[in-house]
Write a structure and sequence with these properties.
The complex is a heterodimer of chains A (304) and B (440). Chain A is α/β, with parallel strands linked by helices. Chain A folds into three domains: 9-73 and 120-199, Rossmann fold (3-Layer(aba) Sandwich); 76-113, no CATH class; 205-290. In chain A, 42% of the residues lie in helices and 14% in strands. In chain A, the strands form four sheets. Chain A has a five-stranded parallel sheet, sandwiched between helices. In chain A, strands 1-2 form a two-stranded antiparallel ribbon. In chain A, strands 5-6 form a two-stranded antiparallel ribbon. Chain B has 440 residues and is α/β, with parallel strands linked by helices. Chain B has helices at 5-10, 18-29, 36-47, 54-66, 76-81, 84-92, 103-114, 118-134, 140-148, 154-163, 166-183, 216-225, 243-251, 264-273, 304-320, 350-354, 377-389, 408-416, 424-436, and strands at 257-262, 282-287, 291-297, 324-330, 337-339, 347-349, 361-365, 392-397, 419-421. The radius of gyration of chain B is 32 Å and the shape is flat. Classes of the chains: A alpha/beta (304), B alpha/beta (440). The A-B interface holds A 6, 17-18, 20-22, 24-26, 28-29, 36, 65-68, 78-79, 82, 86, 142-145, 183, 185-186, 189, 192-193, 196-199, 201 and B 15, 19, 23, 26-27, 30, 32, 41-42, 45-46, 48-51, 54, 117, 119, 122, 214-216, 219, 248, 251-252, 254, 256-258, 260, 277, 279-280, 284, 286, 288.
Chain lengths: 304, 440
């Protein structure tokens, strides 16, 4: 029986209540949870922290432009199979000639095809009940990939290549599946239909304060206030790529290396802006809009 | 149960069908739904499949389950305050609301109660248990005695509520919905929070306890005022607001595939290395080519309002995902040449365009409205040659669809090149057709 209790995050991870509930719904119904949202809002963290907190096995499949269902489920290792069958012939020949030493097949038997199936994260997760499976950034995968998953998701079943072994899991034992996407491409409707969907809202200042608290507990309130103020201002001015939670945390990581008075000055001077702003156009816009007074800009650009 | 739900939600452009209902049934069986707040959350995860659907979903939900009709552009507060459901809730609460509460605060309280989930209730119960366990002064026996005294603490009532089967609630709602249908103009029955609010259940007053709520009410409020949670009108001519929606449609033309093909060269090389043992070597062929030719009609005043939006759209497209995008300009229609600059000074003969790879996706953007004599044979031939050479062509027309049939030249060009309106929805249609025409 898989873990189905309600989980609200751990000491190091602040799980949004709505996300926690959606995650609980998905596990209770034995359906994958599809999380979308801006980059840097902690989508991938959820399964990592969940597995860690609950002491569960985690299987990760990072999707990319070359992802296919074989890598995800299992593939048959033809080369190993060929080598071993050659080894058998070779060993037989050596025996004929009275040679004692033999080459080993490392315990694999060419008769049982299952020995040559190398399992991918999906097959591993499905064969170990009560585990966590993460498919990261599925929007980066070719469009066929989510479509290929449809059968497996709705029937909870994978067919192993060549050996014909079927890996099946009951709804109760279904691993907790988390799928993340940055919405770089729309996922097929049929695929979304089989998932519990949750869109992570960008955290508001109060929530952000709690998140910062979890990551940088020692930073003083005053620094956090100043940083948050600037951060939300930056998000408001409509940049091409608005800074996100991850960038804010990095910025604070840099700022906290200074003494607290110095730190406030650094914040107000937007020192270390490079951690927040990632394009030249945005950088110029920030300078124009927030009208930086004094100090040389870290990137050495002229205004306008 | 809820047989009318799919139909009523569809009116808000949400995709709901019988599977949603089955899934809901399953969720109810698994005890995921115990309050109306739960119902909102559970249905949301089933129905809302992109952030823009949050707004329509919230509207549909309030309309269906609470009979609160949120008008276009209206804030949730106002919709709540003028609803009969709220009036009824207030009557039930009579005397138990704080005197100096503003109407807005009342609406907030109402929303918080509507959005209470069983998780919230559980938390309160857990919190109490924890507190009692921690308070060393009170020994177990004492507590038993206390309970024997028949003193029912408010929280016990809430625990009661969490045990309440949903069927009762559902049956009541269904009944009320039926009545509503009959009375139509909102008779004296509607789905009230009487059956919804844990406070109202059993008639016992539960004052003094505030369940914070998981913020569902706050969320619902936020969604109503936020453009991000409403679909941009996909039928509106391209403008600064819906450029991103159009861009999303355009993304669909990226050809992307990870096909496995036999790598002949590698098979031979590796086979030779293995001493003549040839094993098929497979290679993943990822093809992600996107080549676009864009022809913009920038002559005359008729096209003027749209050019900026079109250029922004395709410029964004180029920076985000097109590797190969060329823009050309023309006036009204294309004869033997187009221009590579917006001032139409640098000529590019059409032959040069036609010598490009047929894999290009070709977009014409123009109103296709001109004097009939302008659309000469030569011009029509040019279009025919282009569609013959490039299999993926589309004409995007900013002119409203209803005027198309009154313009002769639109009618003619439409026959030569598939035409769609210059709206996110139109672009999507054009892209879908282009994909079908892909050369295998």
């Amino acid at each position: 029986m898989a873990e189905k209790s309600y989980w609200e995050g751990s000491d190091h991870y602040l799980c949004d209540t709505e996300l926690a509930q959606a995650f609980h719904i998905s596990r209770t119904l034995g359906m994958p949870l599809l999380i979308e949202g801006e980059p840097g809002t902690g989508k991938t963290e959820l399964p990592f922290q969940y597995a860690k907190a609950q002491g569960l096995e985690l299987h990760v499949y990072p999707a990319g432009s070359k992802s296919n269902i074989e890598q995800f489920v299992a593939k048959f290792d033809h080369v190993k199979y060929l080598r071993d069958s050659q080894v058998e012939i070779l060993n037989a020949q050596r025996e004929e000639k009275g040679l004692a030493s033999k080459m080993s097949t490392a315990g694999r038997d060419t008769e049982s095809l299952g020995d040559y199936v190398s399992k991918g994260p999906a097959a591993k997760a499905f064969s170990s009940p009560n585990s966590v499976l993460l498919i990261d950034e599925i929007d980066k995968a070719p469009r066929e990939f989510p479509n290929d998953l449809l059968y497996a998701l709705s029937h909870r079943k994978f067919l192993m290549p060549e050996s014909g072994e079927v890996i099946e899991v009951s709804e109760e034992d279904m691993p907790a599946i988390v799928i993340t996407s940055n919405r770089e491409q729309e996922l097929p409707t049929a695929f979304k239909g089989r998932c519990i969907y949750h869109y992570i809202q960008f955290p508001e200042a109060d929530k952000m304060r709690e998140i910062i608290q979890k990551h940088h507990p020692k930073v003083s309130d005053k620094i956090v206030d100043t940083a948050l103020d600037i951060f939300y201002q930056l998000r408001k001015i409509g940049l091409e790529r608005s800074p996100t939670t991850r960038e804010l945390l990095n910025w604070l990581k840099y700022i906290k290396t200074f003494s607290s008075k110095e730190a406030i000055d650094k914040l107000n001077a937007l020192d270390g802006l490079g951690t927040l702003i990632k394009t030249q156009a945005d950088y110029e816009k920030v300078q124009r809009q927030l009208a930086l007074g004094g100090g040389t800009p870290p990137m050495g650009t002229s205004l306008n | 149960m809820f047989t009318t739900l799919p139909e009523r939600f569809k009116a808000f452009h949400l995709k709901v069908d019988v599977r949603t209902l089955l899934l809901l049934q399953k969720a109810i069986d698994r005890e995921l739904v115990k309050t109306i707040g739960d119902l909102y959350n559970v249905l949301r995860t089933f129905i809302v499949k992109s952030p823009e659907l949050m707004g329509p979903y919230t509207r549909a939900f309030y309309d269906y389950f609470l009979s609160i009709d949120i008008r276009n552009g209206e804030q949730l507060h106002d919709a709540v305050l003028r609803s009969q459901t709220f009036q009824q809730w207030k009557e039930q609460k009579a005397g138990r609301l704080e005197e100096d509460m503003s109407r807005k605060e009342m609406a907030n309280l109402f929303l918080d109660e509507v959005h209470i989930t069983h998780y919230d209730i559980q938390k309160v119960i857990d919190g109490r248990e924890l507190w009692e366990k921690d308070s060393g002064d009170v020994e177990d026996q004492d507590r038993e005695e206390q309970e024997d005294n028949g003193e029912i603490r408010p929280l016990d009532k809430m625990a009661d509520y969490s045990d309440l089967t949903l069927e009762e609630l559902m049956a009541r709602m269904e009944e009320v919905l039926k009545q509503q249908k009959r009375d139509h103009s909102g008779g004296s029955h509607w789905v009230g929070t009487g059956g919804i609010s844990p406070y109202g259940h059993g008639g016992a007053a539960k004052d003094g306890i505030r369940v914070g709520g998981s913020g569902g009410g706050k969320m619902a409020r936020k969604v109503m005022g936020d453009a991000n949670f409403f679909p941009v009108d996909l039928e509106t001519i391209l403008n600064d607001n819906n450029i991103d929606a159009a861009l999303a449609s355009l993304k669909g033309i990226i050809e992307e595939s990870a096909q496995e093909t036999l790598d002949v060269k590698e098979t031979i090389n590796r086979g030779l290395e293995r001493g003549g043992l040839f094993l098929p070597e497979i290679k993943n062929e990822t093809d992600e080519k996107l080549q676009v030719l864009l022809f913009i009609d920038n002559g005359g005043y008729s096209m003027h309002p749209y050019i900026k939006a079109v250029q922004t759209l395709f410029r964004k497209m180029k920076t985000r995902f097109a590797y190969d995008l060329e823009t050309y300009y023309f006036h009204n229609t294309i004869y033997g040449q187009v221009y590579s600059d917006a001032h139409r000074r640098k000529r590019v003969p059409i032959e040069r365009i036609l010598s490009k790879s047929p894999n290009y996706n070709v977009f014409f953007v123009g109103d296709a409205a001109m004097a009939p004599y302008e659309l000469s044979n030569q011009s029509m031939n040019t279009y025919m040659e282009m569609t013959k050479h490039f299999s993926k062509c589309a004409w995007l027309n900013p002119e409203p669809l209803k005027f198309w049939e009154h313009t002769l030249t639109i009618q003619i060009i439409k026959e030569l090149i598939p035409m769609e309106s210059l709206t996110p929805a139109g672009i999507e249609k054009a892209v879908l057709r282009m994909n079908k025409n892909r050369k295998k």
